[in-house]
Amino acid sequence: MDSKWKRIIVSAPGKVILHGEHAVVYKEPAIAASLDLRSYLCVEKRNDDKVSVQFPDVKLTAFWNTQDLKKLSIPKCDPLEPQPPSDELLSLFREFTQQKKDTTDPKDLAILAFLYLYTAMQSTDGELYPLDFKLMSQLPVGAGLGSSASLSVCLSAALLTVHGVIDQPCSSDADKVMFGQWSASHLEAINKLAHQAEKIMHGNPSGIDNSIATYGGAIRFQGGNIQKIDRIPELRILLTNTKVPRSTKALVADVRKKYYTYPEIFRPVMESFAAVTEKALETFRMMPRDSSTETTDLYSTFEDLVDINQNLLKLIGVSHSTLEQICQLTSDYGLHTKLTGAGGGGCAITLLRPDTDPDIIEEVQEKLRSCGFDCWKTVVGGPGVVTHFILTQQEQTLLNNLIS
Ligand SMILES: Nc1ncnc2c1ncn2[C@@H]1O[C@H](COP(=O)(O)OP(=O)(O)O)[C@@H](O)[C@H]1O
Ligand SMILES: C[C@@](O)(CCOP(=O)(O)O)CC(=O)O
Ligand SMILES: [Mg+2]
């Protein structure tokens, strides 16, 4: 570990899947965009031989002795070619932390993901460094906005950097650069490692969530192939969190079971999801660069696609009464809504046209809040994983408790 190094702060965004959730697990295309909500991870050196984690969103505070972790017989693994977390390895960590088998407690899953990534670094130089890991996330946990991927990407980026597997992006004080981004090959390494950690939270993740948390912006993702979408229109979205808890892992497993039981029914449905995604991409490409040009017909197509997609998601069994309630309530105002992420609760997105009356938006938000939901306007397409050199005033306030 570089002796000059004292602390690094990294952050990675959450995401919305515009089209293609679930189908993407079966190697169909999907479109995702980064959110303006991020997880921030602060990693600091310690002066003893312990490693500590503070993840307050899941009420996790724990520390372990690095020597005890070193004694576990963890198979050597190249962090640039990481092995998936095997059942044996996860059992070893569960035993070490006295977790119950098959636990789905968010805190337990976070511990497993952390230990998998932390100990994967041992093969770089045989060392496990004494460090403090403190997390602050703006993302609701387990609500379909990719909180797990945002955490996995932050941890992967920080650990690979601290162990010198990838370089810390350069900062030049003279330029007053606020944050730095890793090179393409280093981003690839971060993304690959984070995808393995996602397997602990998801079981069989497509990789779309960690990819968007790594690269940011908007992407078309299919079977591990990431294509940047340069011309995503300035989409204004209303995000509504039903606050109904659900597990991505359980929902994905449930769809899988149906898919293999009724392949002749589910295969064509997955192809329909794909057709919706491709039609949306075609419509993006037709959006004029000049905002004064008429786009009414194109927005009508977007709205049709949102409705069709939501109906397909309902058909595969991942909608929820609260999500249906949001669809109905927004449709009374001429707005179109679909769930985003794994469904079964979690979040919904409502498309806003450039000319949607601001008073209507306010009224809809108020109605949704009166039903007990959280609701806010959002912009998509911000940066992927970054390391912070200088914090903005807002970030300083946000991270006040993290930075000693
Ligand atoms: N801020 C956080 N702190 C600790 N663990 C987190 C945090 N955010 C996500 N996680 C982990 O990710 C899991 C949620 O992932 P998932 O079910 O995929 O939902 P999401 O749509 O938010 O990614 C949690 O159970 C927890 O283990
Ligand atoms: C349902 C799925 O397509 C997205 C899950 O997203 P989230 O974890 O609910 O944010 C699963 C996946 O792509 O791995
Ligand atoms: Mg997730």
Automatic annotation (TrEMBL):
Pfam families in the record: GHMP_kinases_C, GHMP_kinases_N
Protein name from the UniProt record: Mevalonate kinase
Catalytic activity: (R)-mevalonate + ATP = (R)-5-phosphomevalonate + ADP + H(+)
Record has Transferase as a keyword: yes
Record's GO cellular component terms: cytoplasm
PANTHER family in the record: MEVALONATE KINASE
Pathway participation: Isoprenoid biosynthesis; isopentenyl diphosphate biosynthesis via mevalonate pathway; isopentenyl diphosphate from (R)-mevalonate: step 1/3
Main subcellular location: cytoplasm
Native species: Sinanodonta woodiana (Chinese pond mussel)
Entry's EC annotation: 2.7.1.36
Gene3D superfamilies: 3.30.230.10, GHMP kinase, C-terminal domain
InterPro entries: GHMP_kinase_C_dom, GHMP_kinase_C_sf, GHMP_kinase_N_dom, GHMP_knse_ATP-bd_CS, Mev_gal_kin, Ribosomal_Su5_D2-typ_SF, Ribsml_uS5_D2-typ_fold_subgr
GO process terms (BP): sterol biosynthetic process
Keyword Lipid metabolism assigned: yes
Superkingdom of this protein's organism: Eukaryota
Subcellular location as annotated: Cytoplasm
Family as reported in the entry's similarity comment: Belongs to the GHMP kinase family. Mevalonate kinase subfamily.
